Amino acid sequence: MSLKQLIHKSKKRDIKSQSEIYQLFAGKLFALCLKYSKTPQEAEDNLQEAFITIFNKMEQYKFKGSFEGWMKRIVINTALQTYRKKNVLNLVEENFPEEVEVEINEDKISLDYLLKIIRELPDRYRMVFNLYALDGYSHKDISSMLGIAVGTSKSNLSRARLILKEKVELSQQKQSLKLF
User: Fold this and answer.
1) CATH topology of domain 3-85
2) Which CATH class is domain 111-179?
3) Dihedral of CA 38/138/145/10: which sign?
4) Model pTM?
5) CA 173 to chain CA mean position, Å
6) d(CA 159, CA 164)
7) For 57-114, what is each residue's pLDDT tens digit?
8) I need a labelling partner for 73 at 20 to 30 A (CA). Which of 32, 47, 120, 172 fits?
9) Residues 45-50: contacts with CB within 8 Å, 24+ apart?
């Protein structure tokens, strides 16, 4: 059955079609949830909430743009909504240099380590970093999504990059010392 057929049947609340859509996209969407969650358990909760929303709002998908992209927006909004409810996003205005460069020696830093240190960022920085650096949203979009000023988005991104840079450099120094 084609994706379009699955979507049409899912709009009619066909459980089997919804299950197939879940099986097709759960892995990718879970990876997206992990970026916005502190723990895998939180990511699972966000994924489940997102799929409930996806299936409840399936009628709103009009086959304009990619279905996966439509679902990703719901997943991100679900994660952000979860953190707003918990008042975790106490975003503060800070002044940091706008661009912090992070140089990574890919032979010494693993992707798992990078994901780990991103998850360790304070929530307000992790959200902005993920939205901007990983998902390609503009500061204007982030401002609207999180209810913050554009300047706050920029400064939170800079602070996130600074924290990541410090952790990467520290890790690389430790790796260099192990070589001696």
Assistant:
1) Rna Polymerase Sigma Factor; Chain: A (1.10.1740)
2) mainly alpha
3) negative
4) 0.71
5) 29
6) 9
7) 999 999 999 999 999 999 999 988 887 776 544 444 445 445 545 554 455 577 788 8
8) 120
9) 45/82, 46/75, 46/78, 46/79, 46/82, 47/75, 49/78, 49/82, 50/74, 50/75, 50/78, 50/79
